[in-house]
């Protein structure tokens, strides 16, 4: 976020959103309650709301997480928007609170952007510095402002990065933590619990063990997904995704070879590998990128030995029955499925 989210500028912006401004020719987006604000309207808000061009197809692997989000978020919202009442007939609400956890660079931000892109709704990406202030009470006012703006917009996606700083465990942060931090957590809890909240809140953390379990309960961030290191199948998919628009002669066997020898790498590491290969191909003025533009198998093995995995997990909000349909048990369900069919690598998590 690049603007000061002070409540005073927000009051001025109410009027901007209330008007139906569409002077920039941006194709209109439609929330479940009608038209979503144009780029011009979004620019006049306090927070840096944007439209996202990302889609699920840009994310390699993690098919089970995509399928879940398709079914539980996209389908109900898009059906409602199209006037299809098959979900509302049974009072089926879309999932609107999601916690993603896993090592840095595994695509958690991409998931939030892609969700907004698939829904064609505005998206805002926030780190703790965007909402925490050194001034007493200002941080919780900033949280209120954020959700006020979300309410004006209607259907939208709020992405909260480094969620452990916003939702630090209150029970053991009581003594050491700043009173302001606790107010921020309490304000988020209150805002997330509002019944008429249309905003989909996606939070991400590399330190799931530090999250206040109260935030993970039904009605708040109830769907939990581990976005772990990609397994071999996911690594192949990520490499393919990043080479989609590149002239390349890589065969299936060469993709498989690269995927085999990049165990322990994140999606971000694989994206870097592809960037370097593109540069190598350009340097030699090649017509197509080849396997030789990537590091040799031996060099990849050296890189792999430098990657050190660790593990961490979300606090338990399990009610003991491990029911796949119960949101409190979803992280368990999705993780075990991912281990079986190409979501994430169970060789663990270096979350720092
Ligand atoms: P952090 O925890 O550090 O915020 P993150 O998990 O949010 O990291 P992203 O910012 O989403 O990771 O990913 C960084 C970059 O890595 C992306 O812009 C993309 O280029 C690449 N990347 C990561 N995961 C994937 C993936 N599954 N498919 C394609 N690209 C990926």
Automatic annotation (TrEMBL):
Coiled coil: none annotated. It comes from the Archaea. Transmembrane segments: none annotated. This is ATP-binding protein. The keyword Nucleotide-binding applies. Keywords: ATP-binding, Nucleotide-binding. InterPro entries: AAA+_ATPase, AAA_ATPase_domain, AAA_lid_3, ATPase_AAA_core, P-loop_NTPase. Residues 1-10 have a biased composition (Polar residues). GO terms for molecular function: ATP binding; ATP hydrolysis activity. Pfam families: AAA (PF00004), AAA_lid_3 (PF17862). Residues 307-326 have a biased composition (Acidic residues). Residues 1-39, 305-352 are annotated as: Disordered. It comes from Haloplanus salinus. Residues 94-231 form the AAA+ ATPase domain. Residues 327-340 have a biased composition (Basic and acidic residues).
């Amino acid at each position: 976020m690049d603007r000061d989210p002070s409540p005073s500028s927000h009051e001025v912006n109410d009027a901007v959103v209330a008007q139906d401004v569409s002077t920039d020719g941006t194709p209109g987006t439609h929330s479940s309650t009608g038209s979503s604000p144009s780029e011009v309207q979004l620019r006049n808000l306090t927070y840096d709301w944007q439209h996202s061009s990302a889609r699920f197809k840009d994310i390699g692997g993690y098919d089970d997480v995509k399928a879940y989000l398709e079914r539980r978020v996209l389908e109900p919202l898009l059906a409602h928007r199209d006037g299809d009442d098959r979900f509302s007939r049974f009072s089926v609400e879309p999932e609107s609170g999601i916690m993603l956890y896993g090592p840095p660079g595994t695509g958690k931000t991409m998931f939030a952007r892609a969700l907004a892109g698939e829904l064609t709704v505005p998206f805002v990406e926030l780190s703790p510095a965007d909402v925490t202030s050194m001034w007493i009470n200002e941080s919780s006012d900033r949280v209120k402002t954020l959700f006020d703006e979300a309410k004006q917009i209607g259907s939208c996606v709020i992405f909260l990065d480094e969620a452990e700083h916003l939702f630090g465990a209150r029970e053991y942060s009581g003594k050491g933590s700043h009173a302001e931090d606790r107010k921020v957590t309490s304000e988020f809890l209150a805002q997330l619990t509002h019944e008429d909240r249309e905003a989909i809140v996606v939070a991400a953390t590399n330190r799931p063990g530090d999250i206040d379990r109260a935030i993970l309960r039904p009605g708040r961030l109830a769907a939990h997904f581990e976005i772990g290191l990609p397994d071999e199948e996911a690594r192949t998919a990520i490499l393919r995704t990043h080479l989609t628009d590149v002239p390349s002669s890589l065969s299936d066997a060469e993709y498989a070879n690269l995927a085999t020898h990049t165990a322990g790498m994140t999606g971000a590491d694989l994206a870097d590998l592809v960037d370097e290969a593109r540069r190598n191909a350009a340097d030699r003025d090649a017509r197509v990128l080849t396997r030789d533009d990537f590091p040799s198998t031996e060099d990849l093995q050296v890189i792999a030995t430098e990657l050190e995995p660790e593990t961490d997990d979300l606090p338990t909000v399990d009610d003991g029955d491990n029911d796949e349909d119960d949101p409190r048990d979803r992280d368990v369900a999705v993780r075990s499925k991912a281990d079986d069919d190409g979501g994430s690598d169970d060789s663990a998590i270096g979350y720092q």
